[in-house]
Amino acid sequence: VERTFTLLKNYERNHPESLKIVYVINAPSFFNFIHNWLKTVLPESIISKLCLLSKEECPALLGKHIDLSILPASVGGTMVDVNGDPNCPSLYKMPLNIPVPESLMLYNQFCVLDNDPNAMKTTVECGALFKVPCIVSEPNSNLQWDYQTLNFDICFGLSFRKDEISESKPIMTPRRVESHRIPESGNFFCEETGIYELIFDNTYSWFTKKDLVYKASVLPPHTDEEED
């Protein structure tokens, strides 16, 4: 439910005209509750594009937009696998109803989780701010970072100061990031030398501390090009 809501809200916010219609086929009975709830939180421009269909209704409606010969029989088309399976599992890169391989797990695609020996761990307390200073000694260096929170989101930003006694100036204003869903990565090309600070801001949360895993590095000029 939460993922569906987030997906639809992102469509509405960033690509309002790209979402033409959403067909929900053979939905379980409890989906009516979800549908009614979505009506209270999503704009009509999205709700009007959400269409619930039974298997019997599919051929007549989907046939207007999709060639039924390429649509699996299990969702109203006429296509079946060579063995007669109406679900057409051969269409999928991975077989249906099997565990996701370990190699595809996110923690194996990103290097910021608990199993990364180079990552640092800390807890950002309720109402607190945590900064990671990164010293850049050569102009045009590349500051890179990766981070993830374990259960909740956090505000992330970037600031700069010329030296220890200088006033800090914002480069990236802190904004809330759902880094508990997927690890975040980023970089910034530092034209000036000085102290760049990664900011993890939990001042907006009075009751929830945030467990944070992070790492940062500064690559000298031209390092990325040489590696390529």
Automatic annotation (TrEMBL):
Residues forming the CRAL-TRIO domain are 1-83
Question: Which PROSITE patterns does this chain map to?
Answer: CRAL_TRIO, GOLD
Q: Where is the GOLD domain?
A: 109-218
Give an example GO cellular component term for this record: cytoplasm
Query: What is the protein name for this chain?
Result: SEC14-like protein 2
Q: What organism does the UniProt record list as the source?
A: Trichonephila clavata
Provide the taxonomic classification. Answer: Eukaryota, Metazoa, Ecdysozoa, Arthropoda, Chelicerata
